[in-house]
Amino acid sequence: MNSAERRRAMAFKRFYAEYQRLILGMVSVVGMMLLWELAFTYVIPLNPFFFTKPSLIAEAFKQQIVSGSLWHDVAISSKAFLLGFGLAVVVGIPIGVFMGWRRRAEYTLDPFLTALYASPLVALAPLLIIIFGVGLTGKVALIFLLSVFPFIFNVFAGVKCTDRLLVNVVRSFGGREKDIYFKVILPSIMPYIVAGARIAIGRGIVGILVTEFYAASEGIGFAISRFGDTYRLPDMFAAIMVLMIVAVGLTEGLRKLETLVAPWKVGQEAR
Amino acid sequence: MVPCIEARSLTLTFTPKNRDPVTALQGFDLQVSKGEFLSLVGPSGCGKSTFLNVLLGLLKPDSGELSLNGKQIDGPGQERAMVFQEFGLLPWRTVLANVELGLELKGVAPSIRHERALDLIKLVGLERFQNHYPHELSGGMKQRVGLARALATEPEVLLMDEPFAALDAQTRDLMQTELLQIWERTKKTVLFVTHSIEEAAYLSDRVVIMTARPGRMKNVFKIDLPRPRDYEMRLTPEFNDIKAKIWNTLKDELSGKAAGNGI
Fold it and tell me: How high is the ipTM of this complex?
């Protein structure tokens, strides 16, 4: 081996070490797809009424993109999701902080909120649609209801874990209640907020699907149920895949956000 | 010498939930002169830290009087700052932002507190680490940040609650000597709580021995060793005599406490 070759081999090794996670992850996804495709092409006879395979899904996906129907459905559902989720952030975090810091608030709200968190709130979907109608408001209401609790309870737990020493430090330098909220509690619950958001995303997506399955004329959930009803399985899978991609994208985004809002936490974990 | 801190018959009892009340301080008296370096030594749980927290204004005594420059202490104030045993650095703030904390809470303008914080970071020798986060620092460096933060608000009295207890022996020796240098330059009044007789004797003008719980003053030793002191001094027979004397007084409290606990 001459030195140029050796250098190239070294560079490859370094590249692999750096991107190992990504490379192996991609290998597993692509491998699964290949297996699925090959199994239904050569081994198992494909009954298109019951199942489908990646090449057909890809074709359906392309057509939906070209026709623009996909963008429309995604936009409709995203709007509901963003509104409901945003509302959950804005309402859930203050309630969680309040419950965590004020014992009376905890004792008063806890039984009520725990009961709601534990119960299958999707059961309220019909009621919410009766109250708010088939459009945006009903969807937002259910998404909000489903995704607000992870924020409340994670923030609550985060506030409970706030380091008392740091509170005393801020007090000892003359900090007031407001300073304790903004200089100690809020920064220290950031990782808890992100963890709550991760759960809330899943629940919020369930919220979209349930309302759109149940009563809607557009949106990604509506598309899935309509394709299912008409046995257009490749189209249905294409829509499901879009949901998956969005969910993965959001979760990954949160992971990035976590290193951004809590670099010290990431640093500690790396040790 | 001008009296700076005066505690008269302080009593404080904690009442933990579902447990018997604990009297941490009972009839505690103490006078500290301006510019004095005073250490409090005593068995664990004798109320040393409790006293510092009362002095800091985080705890209120049940009875007794505590004044600073003749004024009753009622809550935290900028004439006092604490260096905490477990550092108490905000993990989401850089060294610089941590040192600025006290000034920020006082409402000092950003540019001024910046400059002041940088001066103190230089004083404790951390200028290369001003943008590091606490988790990137060693224990000794963290406590330097704690010291810089306390000094940044220009307090008259520096309270130190076992500040070097969490450090390894060598770092500890180093920090003690540096603390002495800083003290000699800034001439603060220092109240220093420690378990280490050696540390107390090395640093202090006076060492106060406290009784086992409930804490009262048992004995006071004046340390007449010349200043500035350095590490060599700790090897002299005079220093060892003082240590032995302090140990003899403290011993009874430790054994008394052990007997009381049935150990």
Answer: 0.90
